[in-house]
Each structure stands twice: as C-alpha cells, then as structure tokens.
Amino acid sequence: MNVVIVDDEPLARERLRRMVETLDDHAVIGEIGDATDCLPQLADLAPDAVLLDVNMPGQDGLQIADALSRSNLPPAVIFVTAHSEHALSAHNASCSGYLLKPVRRDDLAAALARAARPSRAQFAALAEHVDIGTASGYVSARTRDGIERVAIRDILYFWADHKYTSVFHRDGELLIEQSLATLEQSLAETFVRVHRKALVARAHVTGLKYSDDGSAALTIAEHDSIVPVSRRRLPDVKNLLAGAS
Length: 245
Known about the structure:
This protein is α/β, with parallel strands linked by helices. The protein is 29% helix and 33% strand. It is built from eight helices and 15 strands. The chain has helices at residues 10-20, 38-45, 61-69, 87-92, 105-115, 120-128, 180-186, 234-244, and strands at residues 2-6, 27-32, 49-53, 76-81, 97-100, 138-143, 146-151, 155-161, 164-169, 172-176, 191-195, 198-201, 205-210, 216-220, 226-229. A five-stranded parallel β-sheet has the order 2-1-3-4-5, sandwiched between helices. The radius of gyration is 24 Å and the shape is elongated.
C-alpha cells in the first residue's frame, strides 16, 4: 500500500513515516506539510491511502477529504488528529479510519488494513469509470475480496443469465451487471455475438464443432467449455472462421 502523509507538523510526519515503514508491504511515497496546495500533489502521487491531519492552516482535513471523495478514484482517507471532537465529522466524511495523536503503531496498522478494503466512494468511482469502449479497456466487478478488474484482452467470452452477465476470462469468472447488448455495442470490433446469451472474443475462438443433433458450438482457447452457436448466428460464425483461416 502506498501512503501519503498530510500534516503541517514535521515531527508528526516523521513519527508516522517511521511507523508506516515498519509495516510489511507499506511505503510512504510522499509527505505534504502545506494543506493549501496538497490536492494537486495528491493527484500526482495517486496514493492508496492518505494519513490526513484534521487541523491545518489554510484548509482543514475535512475539506480536503471531501474534495478527494469526488476524484475519479479516491484514496482511502485516515484522519489523524489530537482532537476527539472531530470524530463525528470524520465519520460523516466517509473516512476509512480515525486516529488520535499520539498514534499507536497497532492502531495505525489496523486502520491501514481497513483502508485496504475499497470504500463506498471507490466502489462508486470504479462503477462510473468502467471502460469497455476499446480492446485496451477493462471490466470490473465487486467480489468478496473487493473490486476485481479484468482487461478486455484477457476475456474469452460473456454469457448472459437473467439480470447478470458472466465474464469468463483467462483466470476465472466474474459477474457484472452490464447487459450483453451494451457490451456488444461497445466491443463490436473485437467480439462477436454467437447466441442470444453469448458474446465471444474473436481472438480466442479456436474452432467450430457439431453435436450429433446438428447443433454447433465454438471451442475457446484456454478454456475447457464450449459456447453454443445459434442457427441464426451460424453463418456469421462460419464467415468469421473462414476469414481467420
């Protein structure tokens, strides 16, 4: 986890840095002592978490946290203050943690562990900025471990089932809420509709096979299952395979 410390007191920043650096897989990538111009610096640093003092000259931490929550992908915010009366305001700011000075290492470690889980603001930001417009884009989904993002180039096919769409990719499967029609429109250059329930990545199609009853299905690279092809879509699929040969 990459952490930035925002505090106008040099000694407080130094103490927090020392504690963060004792934690495995955590690094302080920046320190900011002036609240008035910290937002551009935070945008450039793009940290995972911000240790943010509440009381600072020029602009207080609550205002900074509010501005961060409206950014494209907001970092987790952990307030650090000597004043317990700010706790309610901090909670209303949807912060990931609230630490009283002098900060104890165990409390800091616990707060950073909580911050590793995506906040509601981060979930909302990702949901609004899913990029499926190009082959270099991605889809994302909420899982038990947080938000999982999969590159379009790694997706084998989409399968629609009721209100959800399953995303079958190189490393597993996700559930998303985008409709197959929306995905088809956005990914027309790299995916082909082969069934009312299936949208397949052209690059991952390896062949066409027929069952004894005459039904057709596509074989997919790096995947054991086959994807059914509807009779209406079969001519288009044959043309696709003929063009690729």
